Amino acid sequence: MSRGRGTGNAAVLRTQLAGVLVRPGRLVMTGLAVVVAAFVVFGTVMAQQITERTALDRFSGTPEATSLIVTANGGGDESAITDAKINAVRAVPGVAEVAARTEIGVSLAGVSPHYLELQGDPGTGRLSRVQVVAGSYPDGPREMAVNRQASQRFEIEPGDRVGILFPKGEDGGTTTVTMTVTAVVRADSDRQATGYAPAATINSLGDMKEYPQLDIRAEPGVSAEALSERLSPVLQGADGAAAVITPGDTVRTQEANDAAEQYAEVFQLIAMFLAIAVVAAALVATSTFRIVFAQRLGQLALLRTIGARRGQLVRALAVEGALVGLASGTAGVLLALGAGHAAPVIAGAAGQTLQAPGVPVPAALAVVLGAVLVTVGAVLAPALSAAGVSPLQALRSAGTVSGERGIGLIRVGSGLFLAAAAALLIGLVFLDMPEPGDANYDASTGLMVTVASGGLAFLALIALGPLLVRPVLATVGWPLRRLGPTGTLAVGGIGGTPRRAAAVSVVVALGVTLVSGTLVGVASLRGWADRDLALTAPADFDLRVSDSGSSSDGRGNGGSDGLGAEAVRRVKALPQLVDATDYRMTDISIDGADVRATDLDLAALPTSRQLYTATGELSDLGPGRVIVNARLAELLGVTAGDSITITTPTKGTVRETVAATLPSEAPMRADLIAVPADLEKMGASSRPTGILANAAKGGQTARNAAVRAIEKTVGPNTHASLTILAEDRDDSSADLEVAATSALGLLGLTVLIAVVGVATTTGLTVLERTRESGLLRALGLGRSGLRFMIGIEAGLYGVLGGVLGLALGVPYAWLAVRVLNIGAPLLLPVGQLLAVFAGLVGITALAGLLPARRAARVSPVAALGTTD
Q: What does the alpha-carbon distance between residue 385 and residue 297 come to, in Å, rounded to a whole number?
């Protein structure tokens, strides 16, 4: 009996596999999504190897030729590295080269304190960290080189002379040294504006007597260990303290590991997005297997009729899925392997250097095994459904009976239960929602619950999707029906197979949910960042007087008591500036608390449109009415409409009404904003404290021109300092843009797999409906009309997925932003969402182009004669 059963299993398996080999196109379409997923996953493994190997090769700050590194141990003067000890080290037998290292933070002279890191480097030899790309490396006492970042940021080139402010003494003073830029250099280890010169030159200019580090290269044939033993007596002081000697290989390894570690964290984050892409691939594979098995319903029914058991069919179909997974996973891995090894070649042709990856066999086997498991898991539900076909169905010709049966009460109940659970979790989130600004609230728990609710809601969408297809189509399909019979047929073709349409649309909806949620979240966070920057960086430039210095410089520029009227007039008249407005700041006291008050004109600054209030309105500011920030409002316990008494150093007390309170700080870190007349009552000087202004044009070049114009207008002999607030805004915006772009790029993998699913489903549907296509052609539908109809059907998958995805993505993004409790506004980037929706519909329509052309090429006679 067991032998007969085994023989029967083998016969059923041979029959199924023979059917698969007869139609290899269906096999390719079935595994296409898995190929993409395997390619993406193993491609990420290859990318990580390339990144880490490149980091190991390029981003070490220690040159390859360095044998030993000597660092001061902080044990006292005797362990310090001085010029005398450097000369002694050079005299030790076996020492081929010595490079002293030093660094100091300086600023470019003028009213704008541009920060520059000066580092000591020999510039030549095997211990140099830099490579000259323009000019010649400095060798004079007041010469320096700059990297590309500094050259572009400060617009300085070889031959330019710049003033450098070196720290002097411990009282915070500076001394100005005019230095000549002789070269632009490239250094892989630095990512900020940096200058370079021999270490002795920097120490001399900075009045420093010691060096923090020495790099030493041993002569050929001298080991690092032997040289270290020779150096120890030289580096040991009279008190026994000695500098620390470390092998160069050890330091390089640590530097490389530190560089690679930051990329490891990035790839761990990427793995989360890849998991979503794998889920999408599994959903697509499930859908395609269901379609393929439905098309083979007659064959399965005949096997049941001649005695094949349901378990035998399920096992045979599962083996088929495993073979599809094996072939697809292997193809994806091989494609990724080829792409990974081609990347360094392509980069080399573009002038970049990337290290070649290896052949990570364990990772490749793991990806292939994962592909097999995903496809076997995806095939089980369709296999159980298809294998349950009644033998009587062998007499039927419809190929989609099994595929389009009702979803059943169990599935409906499960979907409703999941939806209720998701709604319950949302309710719990709202119950635990804190008041805005609650500093004791931990958002991590709320975010986890929100993600869990979103996961349950998506599972509910999978279960209830077939019930949602026709109601959604009834709405979105109305314009298509106005196109005539072609549009009506397209809508009917999708609506006639709701389970299939739901299976494909749900994958599209997954991508749209994630992309739209990210766009909404980024828009809200960008709005929050804009509001914060409206407080900390309300304009591009802030020119204000310092707290010390004489009262005037003789040119009307002013001193510590404010800017002169002539200086204010000249700065405001600069054509390189717009939105220039002066302001005053003064110190007052309210109920014993020290308060900083200003008369900054909010209406004069475009960024003020980003501000909002906790109570009252900004427009209510006026004589006798002030705006207070959150700290002062909480300290005094006041809201809009309350009165406060202000104590001034010279004017006595002043009574004011609170026009509005802010939810956080006020612009320029002020505590209170008043109109100019009221600020004078509080004892403010008649001279402006500073000027806020924006560059007349966008871009770094226009900003640099504005800085030079301000510096020239105000002059060097002034106690005013210029702060470039726009740099903080640029850094904040750049960080947000990088994060958003990276997230959207990774989430695009899910959309890619969804589009593959649409193409696969459309292609299989075209095969399934070959006779129908022939009949339509026979009734007069032209080739272009048939292509148009199939393209509309493919596009409708995008429409359904887009509608369902937006319905999930936008509310959950808003909920996540609210849970963060950072005061971010709930914004809706309508333009971006419409672009995503329209783009997705267009892409899915294009995905049906190839199947549509194939269907249109078949003659009506041949199509009507097709049996499958």
A: 10
